[in-house]
Amino acid sequence: MQHAEISADGLRVFFDALYQAYGPQHWWPIQDERNPRFEILIGAVLTQHTAWTNVEIAIGALREAGPLTAEAMLAHDDLAGLIRRAGPHRVKAERLRALCRWFVARGEFEAIEALDTATLCRELRGLHGIGPETADVIALYAFDRPRFIADAYAFRIFERYGWSGGSRRYERLREAVEASADRHADPVFYDELHALIVAHAKQRCHKRQPDCAHCALAEVCAYASAAIAAE
Ligand code: SF4
After folding, report:
1. Overall domain count for the chain
2. 215 within ligand 1 shell (Cβ under 6 A)
3. Whose Cα sits closest to atom 8 in ligand 1?
4. What is the model's pLDDT at position 230?
5. Minimum mean pLDDT among 35-49, 76-90, 133-147, 165-179: which range?
6. Does residue 2 lie in a domain region?
7. For residue 212, which atom of ligand 1 is closest to its CA?
């Protein structure tokens, strides 16, 4: 399949078609409006390799056990037990502790907001269990930084759409999207773009047997065009 360069206009067409199909996604889903940004911070770790329904249960258990703050997370005797439903809970408890220790040591939201985006993401990636995707999720949703989340859903859809060939390198795709986005591509755009990509991957562009017949992108998608040509 031929691959084309991502362009600002192409990105807008892609975004608009998905927005038209699925509407606003209202991410990030928050349970406790009193401390939403901290909930995003820990939710980004809890959601690694785990369905969101399990993350909601884990956050609910943490809320019942005390306030959703870094200090409370670090004080829990059995943090792993509280987040048991969120996959490998002992590993994630260690990751949450590392994140919370950094958060407190760095001066919490007020001081961390002063960091430039590259420094913020680099420091997050330096923490135990925080890779580029989780770092960018935190940067985008908790700190309003314009970062494209180049997750597995984005690779799958972009490859089929005709935008991304070759090796699946996170930074390559993130940088390609951010470099081609127009000047209006702000955090609100990236927030919605990521949420729409997730919705599209779950509802139409499945891993196996994508539902091209009902896809809003079918007319401009390389995979769908190739399938029609082969008929
Ligand atoms: S047309 Fe098919 S392959 Fe292309 S984005 Fe839509 S569902 Fe995915």
Report:
1. 2
2. yes
3. 205
4. 78
5. 165-179
6. no
7. 2
Q: What Å distances lie between residue 31 and 25, 130, 143, CA to CA? A: 16, 23, 18
Kindly report the pTM of this predicted structure.
Answer: 0.94
Residue 119, domain extent = 36-141
Ligand 1 pocket: which of 160, 164, 208, 209 to mutate (most atoms <8 Å of CB)?
160
Question: Is 216 inside a domain boundary?
Answer: yes
Q: For residue 174, what pLDDT is reported?
A: 95
Ligand 1 pocket member 217 (CB < 6 A): yes
| CB 156 near ligand 1, within 6 Å | no
Displacement of CA 149 from its chain's centroid (Å): 5
Six-digit token pair at 208?
């196996």
Is any atom of ligand 1 closer than 6 Å to the C-beta of 163? no
Where among 141, 176, 192 does a domain terminate? 141
Answer yes or no: do 40 and 137 share one domain. yes
Task: Look at residues 212, 209, 174 and name the one whose alpha carbon lies nearest to residue 193.
Answer: 174
Nearest CA to ligand 1 atom 4: 221
What's residue 3's pLDDT? 73
| Same domain membership, residue 200 and residue 169 | yes
